[in-house]
Amino acid sequence: MKALIQRVTQASVAVDGETIGAINQGLLVLLGVEKSDDESVAAKLLEKLLNYRVFSDSEGKMNLSVTDIDGGILLVSQFTLAADTKKGLRPGFSSAAAPEAAKALYEHCLQWLQARHATVAAGQFGADMQVSLTNDGPVTFMLQS
């Protein structure tokens, strides 16, 4: 499982021109699910996500988590994060989870976050989405399980 996290001042996701999820300050999380991923892998990654210190404290150091600042989380499925890009000029997706399994684990992740964090918004699994954001910093990290 891979989560590309971006510290944002705002982010939103739209489907067919309609905004379906939006946050102010917080994390945009692009989530890629691989064949070997399961709920225990997801829990470890999500726990790290909630506690990963990427927000500045009063001294300007990255010492605060999204939980510490009570920021929002926008969770968006991103199939292409599971791509193998090591060889050639076209990505391979043999390590990506099958759509049904990926959707089930994505929805599990969304429910897990909603049960543990106050502000959680989401994209729509499998949809053609338009994601807008203002990356703060820019600050972007890849978390992997």
How would you portray this structure in words?
With about 140 residues, this protein is of the alpha/beta class. Helices cover about 20% and strands about 40% of the residues. It has one domain: 3-Layer(bba) Sandwich (D-tyrosyl-trna(Tyr) Deacylase, Chain: A). The strands form 2 sheets. Strands 1, 2, 3, 6, 7 and 8 form a 6-stranded mixed β-sheet that branches. Strands 4-5 form a two-stranded antiparallel ribbon. The protein is globular, with a radius of gyration of 15 Å.
Mean pLDDT: 97
The fraction of residues in strands falls at: 35-45%
Radius of gyration based on Cα positions: 15 Å
Strand/helix succession: EEEHEEEHEE
Major β-sheet profile: 6 strands, mixed
**Poorly predicted residue ranges:** none
Q: What's the end-to-end separation, in Å? A: 5 Å
Main location: cytoplasm
GO molecular function: D-aminoacyl-tRNA deacylase activity
Subunit structure: Homodimer.
Catalytic activity: glycyl-tRNA(Ala) + H2O = tRNA(Ala) + glycine + H(+); a D-aminoacyl-tRNA + H2O = a tRNA + a D-alpha-amino acid + H(+)
Please write out the topology.
Layout: E1 2-15, E2 18-23, E3 26-32, H1 39-51, E4 55-56, E5 62-64, E6 72-77, H2 99-116, E7 120-122, E8 129-144
Parallel strand pairs: 3-6, 6-7
Antiparallel strand pairs: 1-2, 1-3, 1-8, 4-5
Family: Belongs to the DTD family.
GO molecular function, one term: D-aminoacyl-tRNA deacylase activity
Subcellular location: Cytoplasm
Task: Offer a concise description of the structure.
The protein is an alpha/beta fold and 145 residues long.
